[in-house]
Amino acid sequence: MAGNLNGSMFVAGTAVAGAGEVFRAVDPATGTELEPAYAAASAAQLAEAAEAARIAFPAFRRTAPEVRADLLRAIADGLDAEPDLVDRVRAETGILPERVAAERTRTSNQLRLFADVVTEGSYLGLRIDRGNPARVPLPKPDLRHRFIPLGPVAVFGASNFPLAFSVAGGDTAAALAAGCPVVVKAHEAHPGTSEIVGRIITDAVAGLGLPPGTFSLIAGHTPELAVALVTHPAIQAVGFTGSRRAGLALTAAAQRRPVPIPVFAEMASINPVLVLPGALSERGPEIGRGLIGSVLTGFGQLCTSPGLVFVPDLPDADALVEAAATAVESSGSGCMLTPRIAESFAAGVARLESVPGVRRLARAATEDDISALCTPTLFDTDLETFLEHHEELTGEVFGSVTLLVRVPGDLTEAVRNHVLPLLEGQLTATIHAEPDDHDAAAGLLDELELLAGRIVFNGWSTGLEVNDAVIHGGPFPATSAPATTSVGTRAIERFLRPVAYQNVPPALLPRELQDDTRGIWRRVDGRFTA
Amino acid sequence: MAGNLNGSMFVAGTAVAGAGEVFRAVDPATGTELEPAYAAASAAQLAEAAEAARIAFPAFRRTAPEVRADLLRAIADGLDAEPDLVDRVRAETGILPERVAAERTRTSNQLRLFADVVTEGSYLGLRIDRGNPARVPLPKPDLRHRFIPLGPVAVFGASNFPLAFSVAGGDTAAALAAGCPVVVKAHEAHPGTSEIVGRIITDAVAGLGLPPGTFSLIAGHTPELAVALVTHPAIQAVGFTGSRRAGLALTAAAQRRPVPIPVFAEMASINPVLVLPGALSERGPEIGRGLIGSVLTGFGQLCTSPGLVFVPDLPDADALVEAAATAVESSGSGCMLTPRIAESFAAGVARLESVPGVRRLARAATEDDISALCTPTLFDTDLETFLEHHEELTGEVFGSVTLLVRVPGDLTEAVRNHVLPLLEGQLTATIHAEPDDHDAAAGLLDELELLAGRIVFNGWSTGLEVNDAVIHGGPFPATSAPATTSVGTRAIERFLRPVAYQNVPPALLPRELQDDTRGIWRRVDGRFTA
User: According to the model, what pLDDT value does residue A240 have?
Assistant: First the structure.
């Protein structure tokens, strides 16, 4: 497989080897190093990529929407056609082949969705308030509003979605759609996957005759390199998915710049679930099985994995708990993304286990031959223990583990008065409710929407529909920018800035703001029209 | 006049005296202190206001849109009806009575505009992607998106718009419209004006039976008090208009919080103007007079005052310069907002004057009997001097002063290659162009939209139309949040956050997201509909 890989990064259209420290990917299943070797970008190579993006920006931002759509579709087609991709992803990440295939489809579909977003055009936020030179006492000016791209965007690949949140992932798709050149810092855990995808994008950029600086991919694994990228003067915004510590470090670096820039960092979330009594009684075992199905997805290495579940301490709870425990026990252990993530997971599970009053209900069979091992584990505890030890029990443990909390008495009241004040901002919150729970659910919904970016009813938070209405975001620390989403069509808005044009002569107006342009949704004198 | 003033602030519906340090407003025309005395809020009073806002939020955010519209209209009516307002504003700020009256109208109209925004409802950003349970391989969930208010907002009154950007100004109107309680920190230069307006809002809140914590007004004049407000855990966002130093200090304080919050700070701008050769030839004297009219507006104490004007160094330039110089000389000096602002202005003018190669072309007659004196002044220089001394010449001098820069050769090329790279982000940029300038203007427009939030053609940047399409914002340091505007209907978006609802039962959905709600613009399955 390494035969197709050269250990390259791509700087403005050219495949080059990094001039910095050498590293290799590790197969997390076996712990063995993978060929070829990669080397980190030097400071000069990083600067070259950022400068090329700066130079590419004026031409790239003025490309016709159809050209950017063609670019996104060419990348999607390249991903779909690449024969070596699934194997390399699997080798570098331990993700099961069928999940890799599904992630590839999601990634290419996401690129095509953004191609549609660009050509549909409503993301431009067109607003026209027509003037009236005859108004007294002062003439009314003609004012027209649109969004323009911010400039070069730095994207940090995430370890857990080596395709969907990495080199050609959502941030890259949204930034290119917006008209922003992209410099990706490859995640050091999947450099080969990154090289494959980076070549596809580089070829697509060249194939369309776009400025070479439209895309660069640099390698590296140190915090210093990450900070150097975020603080390069050419970079105007940052997309990041990863740990809280890294996200906060990048945000702080961006704020220390002479000209601060926005960092859209999607960070930590434990994704609480509330099971109301009617739902517990009606379908407790189904909820128990569904929960574990969600927790096992991707071996829990998803931002939306449900890590904390509140269940009424009623006799019906036993069936839910039993179904969940059985599901865990009948599942297998699996391979995590990296040895370090597996270590963190084991430490997190041990930390939960060490809290007095927390019981391990079940765990999956261990498989000794996996290097970066995830052994899915189910815990439970009572509300009193949870409240007393909430600091240890509300931190995200990345991996297949979840904690059931049995709540005596009125779950709604207990959650509202005692639990929610202890929780930090979340990507998601889930309610299981039947019609006789609806009064209680309505009150909880009111509170949960202040806590999370997406509220799920009678389902699971894992599995994200990518469309106009979805939000993958939420109050801090779920993201550093709670007004935005990193998934769905609104993700493009992160890389845009509004400009108003006052009394600009019609011939000089941007084409989409001219009176005779039709077909793009716009707001004219207060009314939407296409 | 002081008979109607009690030296009060308003904490959650109650008029109280500050428990901190005592201070008085100063009449900038005479330098004399004004009665009554005011006292800064103590830490406990500040906390009481912020806590009351926190408590008010759940009920206030759920008020019907019509109720918030009624609140905004009641405040507008109260402002319009208040007999003592104009005199007190004039006494505290030196602003001419006719300008105060115009600002009052702007402020009450702005409140009424936001009342319309609330009831019109498109600010809610409704998006519905309907589900399909029959989709294979996975059912498609129903997803619905809306914006919800962030929570209590801290608003800092600005000195230069004691009504329009102060207690009941744009930030307060936008936050209340959004459903966010407001804690205003009154500007220390106009405490009496603030008391009058604070009483109007407090009465309006009480009159509608809204939670008292919906609005508080606290007094104070120290940076410590400002930081204490921004870092209070109940506060969720900050609106600020003022100096770069203060804006950056508040932004930094907000970022140091355990849960960082957004600060929407509108700061410095010098608002460059470019006069192209055709416009110079066609209407040089008119441009010269228009420029000075704009520079004299509010004695230059506007964020949008044009401080830097690039003119081709052609024989036609003399007529523009002469008209501008005559307009300055035939104007009078005037009163600035505060003695400190007058000192800064004098220092700024002296700094310009001290640059070798900068000539004072004209200044208005001095009036010795004004304490906080502004003597409007016109400078010019050549491009070479400007480029050599750009650091001294591109800083905002708050007040009626502007610098003409004579540009030899091709103005467009010189501006693009030499001037624009030296300029920081701006609120506005202005081009004067006739049809034969359009080719050059098109190229400049492309560059200026990267520099500024609003581009003005053949007019002046002062005077802001408040509507859907306007942007009062721009790249840093014009604002700390370039994706937003502090004027116009989009200002409400600053105080909102999106939430997605997945498979929420119809009866539990927010009313505006239910299928049978009509009349609000929304995006359903990709199409806008009302």
Answer: 98
DSSP characters for B397-428? --SSEEEEEEE-S-HHHHIIIIIGGGPPPEEE
Contacts of A442 in chain B (CB under 8 A): 508
* CA nearest to B489 within chain A: A526
- How far B32 CA sits from the closest chain A CA (Å)? 36
The whole-number pLDDT of residue B529 equals 86
* A524 beta partners: A128, A527
CA B374 distance to own-chain centroid: 22
Spatial contact of A256 and A232, defined as CB atoms under 8 Å apart: no
Q: What is the DSSP letter of A468?
A: S
- Angle at alpha carbon of residue A390, lines to A387 and A392, rounded to 5°: 145
Confidence class of residue B526 from pLDDT cuts 50, 70 and 90? confident
In this prediction the pTM is 0.97
A451-479 pLDDT per residue, tens: 999 999 999 999 999 999 999 999 999 99
Tokens of A496: 């845009």
Q: Using alpha carbons, select from B336, B318, B338 the residue that is nearest to residue B326.
A: B318
Is the model's pLDDT at B217 over the cut of 50? yes
Q: Any residues with CB less than 8 A from the CB of A245 and at least 6 apart, and which?
A: none
Contact yes or no for A483 and B473 at CB 8 A: no
pLDDT digits (tens, 9 = 90+) for A135-176: 998 899 999 999 999 999 999 999 999 999 999 999 999 999
Examine the pLDDT at A39 and tell me if it is beyond 60: yes
- Which amino acid is residue A248, in one-letter code? L
Residues 199 to 258 of A: which have CB under 8 A from any B CB? 252, 255
SS3 A404: strand
Q: How confident is the model at residue B3 (pLDDT cuts 50, 70, 90)?
A: low
Could you tell me if the ipTM is greater than 0.90?
A: yes
A422 touches chain B (CB under 8 A): no
Calpha distance B516→B503 (Å, rounded)? 16
Residue type, B96: L
Q: Do the chains contact at A446 and B530, CB–CB below 8 Å?
A: no
CA–CA separation, A28 vs A335, rounded Å?
Answer: 7
Q: How far apart are the C-alpha atoms of A449 and B499, rounded to whole Å?
A: 7
Q: Look up residue A355 and give its amino acid.
A: V
Convert the pLDDT of each residue in B423-447 to its tens digit: 999 999 999 999 999 999 999 999 9
> From the CA of B489, how many Å to the nearest CA of chain A?
10
Give me the total of CB pairs closer than 8 Å, taking one residue from chain A and one from chain B: 192
Tens of pLDDT, residues B120-177: 999 999 999 999 999 998 899 999 999 999 999 999 999 999 999 999 999 999 999 9
Q: Report whether pLDDT(A367) > 90.
A: no
Does the annotation count A180 as an active-site position? no
Instruction: Judge whether A303 counts as a catalytic residue.
Output: yes
Half-sphere exposure of B477 (CA within 13 A, CB side): 21
Q: How far is B309 from chain A (nearest CA, A)?
A: 18
Phi, psi of A200 (to 5 degrees): -60, -45
Contact A185, A229 (CB under 8 A): yes
Between CA A157 and CA A184 the distance in angstroms is: 7
C-alpha distance from residue B210 to each of B10, B80, B144, B196 (Å): 15, 22, 29, 20
Contacts of B54 in chain A (CB under 8 A): none
Judge whether A136 is closer than 8 Å to chain B, CB to CB. Answer: no
* CB of B291 closer than 8 Å to CB of B321: no
Does residue A501 belong to the interface with chain B, where contact is any CB pair within 8 Å? yes
**CB atoms closer than 10 angstroms to residue A22:** 11
Q: For all residues of chain B together, what is the average pLDDT?
A: 96
DSSP assignment letter at B325: H
Digit-coded pLDDT (tens) for A252-262: 999 999 999 99
pLDDT over 70 (residue A83): yes
